[in-house]
Specification:
Elements (H helix, E strand, L loop, with lengths): L21 H8 E8 L26 E9 L6 E5 L12 H5 L4 E5 L20 H15 L4 E6 L3 H10 L4 E7 L5 H4 L3 H4 L4 H7 L3 H4 L4
Parallel strand pairs: 3-4, 3-5, 5-6
Antiparallel strand pairs: 1-2, 2-4
Helix pairs in contact: 3-4
Length: 216
């Protein structure tokens, strides 16, 4: 299947060179995991301005969402789930995964709406609320790590993970928060990040590793 949608770093009409790109190589390292059912009537998403049906990159892939996951290390090792921040993707952990692989089974994934995972539009199967994200995270964890695990989470997705951890304390060995918002003031997205909620900008930048995830 074509993994580029014209705006994605994964290919499409804005690809800079022929042949496999770094994003193609990254995609080849991972797999799609089905977790968390869509709600509602599952109709095709339409843009909020003109009512036109949006492209395949903005549609859900089926009755259950697809999550892009990359895994390293033996399944017999303790599991560590690496959760990226906003706006970013699992690619930001590309150098961490091999370091942990000697002693841990490490898993990084793209949140719904980011990277190679499904990008449902609000009101079309997923509304991006705290409760819904928490429920979706529970579904994904049940799919990839049925036993106890440790979680590392960055930035603005920390409140979702803290809510999950509070509701599933018996599931966790350790919880590590990296640069989380710790007050109500900091919990609100600054304007430089809030712009990504625009349905066009969000779709572009949540997929471009050179803009969002290349911190090394």
């Amino acid at each position: 299947d074509d993994i580029g949608d014209g705006f994605s770093f994964s290919g499409g009409k804005y690809a800079e060179a022929e042949g496999p790109s770094k994003s193609d190589e990254w995609f080849a390292q991972g797999r799609m995991v089905k977790a968390h059912a869509l709600y509602g009537n599952k109709e095709k998403a339409k843009d909020p301005f003109f009512g036109l049906t949006m492209g395949s990159g903005s549609q859900s892939s089926g009755d259950v969402f697809n999550w892009f996951c990359v895994e390293a290390g033996s399944s017999s090792n303790p599991t560590v789930l690496l959760i990226h921040g906003f706006p970013s993707q699992a690619y930001s952990y590309r150098n961490v995964l091999p370091v942990l692989s000697d002693k841990y089974r490490s898993i990084a994934f793209d949140w719904l709406g980011f990277g190679f995972s499904d990008k449902p539009q609000p009101k079309y199967g997923f509304d991006y609320t705290l409760d819904e994200y928490t429920s979706a995270l529970e579904s994904l964890i049940d799919a990839v790590a049925p036993d106890k695990l440790s979680i590392v989470v960055q930035g603005y997705f920390a409140p979702i993970v803290v809510k999950y951890a509070n509701e599933h304390q018996d599931k966790l060995n350790h919880l590590i928060l990296v640069n989380p918002p710790i007050t109500d003031k900091h919990a609100k997205l600054p304007s430089t990040l809030a712009c990504f909620s625009n349905f066009l900008l969000g779709e572009v930048f949540s997929q471009v590793s050179s803009y969002c995830a290349n911190f090394a």
